[in-house]
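Two folds, back to back.
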Amino acid sequence: MKSLLITPAGNRYEAPAGISGLEAVKNLVAGGKEKALQEAICLKIDGRLVDLATKLPEGEVFLVTPDSPEALEVLRHSTSHIMAQAVTRLFPEAKLGIGPAIADGFYYDFDLPQPLTPEDLEKIEAEMRKIIKEDYPITRSELSREKALAFFREKGEKYKVELVEELPEGTISFYRQAEFADLCRGPHLPSTGYPAVFKLMSVAGAYWRGDSARPMLQRIYGTAFFHRED
């Protein structure tokens, strides 16, 4: 069975179904195909974005690269995880809320005992640069609901526990980069090394889940791009 990998330029390459997109790209480049294939950050299968490490099905698979319309959302989502990793390194007492990509960037909510200052944002940015330089692989795994609850309870991540408790029975996806792991549907970049430029813009208060009866968290807003000229 064959997959047909289609680049944003419309070039088509055959690859064996059942291997990962990452492996297929490496094999094609090693075989002398266009090096632009190496720019792939994720896949689009049946209209849905999935990780580059996803096993290829039979049929058409579209490669998403930094110039694809969907790419910035993936980059910014992964950069929110990089920021969360940096925050938990600098502030081990931080409890994690949620951290999605949004229209012009990303945010992540944190429960911290002290207000974040502009100087703190500079320290977080510096730690993010270290994480980006280290280029940690970002890997997906799945846990049962019970194991996911045990994982977050052991870490004292009460907000994550609440989110998992509301999920139906079944497997739950996690993404890990070095020591940092988060509950997430994805997809994400193959590694932490992709953001060429990013900026943490501001901190604002945000009630947990938008409910004024719930704790007030600190929301850090930021943005990121693949290319400095962007």
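---
second:
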Amino acid sequence: MRLVNLVIAASALISALGIINILLLWGLHPAWWKLKSVRIPAILLPIISIGSATIWALGHLKGWHPLTQIGAIVTPALFIIEISLLISLPFSGTVHSIIRVIDYFKRRSDGMQFSGGRRRFVKLAAAVFPAAAVSSSLAGVADSYAPIQIPTRKIPISFLPTQLEGFKIAHLSDLHLGYYVNLDNLQEAVEKIKTHQPDLALVTGDISDDLNILPEALKIISTLSPRFGTYASVGNHEYYRGIMEVMKIFKTAPFPMLINQHININVGGAKVTLGGADDPRTLRRDYTQFLENTIEHTLGEAPADSFKLLMCHRPEGFNYSVQKGIDLVLSGHTHGGQVGLGGRSVFEPLFPEKYLWGTYHRGKTTMYTSGGMGHWLPFRLGVPAEAPILILEKEILA
């Protein structure tokens, strides 16, 4: 029933977006609106979206997987297109308005209109905005279904024990198993990870949006069989889906979930303290105090001479980890903002302390925020789904 309610809400939202876009076309682009090739798709888009959302809900209620899958793919894609039009049409409308203003003043001054060649050029420039937006949207949707990448990332650590140089950690995060990433995708990624022979596998939350497949997913992940084990931490979606059921599943799982807990691992004589922070399970603006409390609870009593490794689903835990002198933090949650360029999220300048994607280093603390293996909105542009192999190396201090 929860999904059905979400689908109904999605239908209402897409309908509203469709109506707004129709009004934008009609009001800002009267010349385009007269074209059937523009007007008819604009009207059909929200209608088709409602139809696909209905198919999604019906498939879920009746247990018809093919219908559910069609709805789950088509509905978000059309939603993303509507959003891209909502953003781009005002820009192109501004260009058209400029043409009309220039025409008005030229007629007032010398009785002449904007030259035909210039008019065509400016109209073409106006069309670039929605064309580029829709093309980027379609590319982002297509890229979200690409295979999960297994990149290798060298992680500089300020005070790395000699025994940990070259130590490999397989970092799995934000799998969101369900409609868009399934067990076959996970199995394929795990087989690729195995070729790197990781020493440790860590799963930093949001594992499955379908708890029915969580036990099998954990079995697949356990086949990595790294020398020093596999461990998980909790994410907000574990709470959304039912934390009690998740914990019940982990009681019989082949590896543990650490919540406000740590364990000690001996790596060739080097002490490693691995902890898993809790998640604030909220989207409220400020949960700084919660993160400070859970990190303190998790690693506050770690041996002073150990290498401290923290799994914290929320990257904002980095700030307090720096204060505590934690050596390495692994995070997820952000999906890299799902739009990136050059290995960083394009939203990084707007939200510098969200630590959206990649490696961050301050003081003696290093953090890697994964772009995630999955997503609940099938759109990725410049942020490929990933399960990176993190290779620890000693930072060369100046």
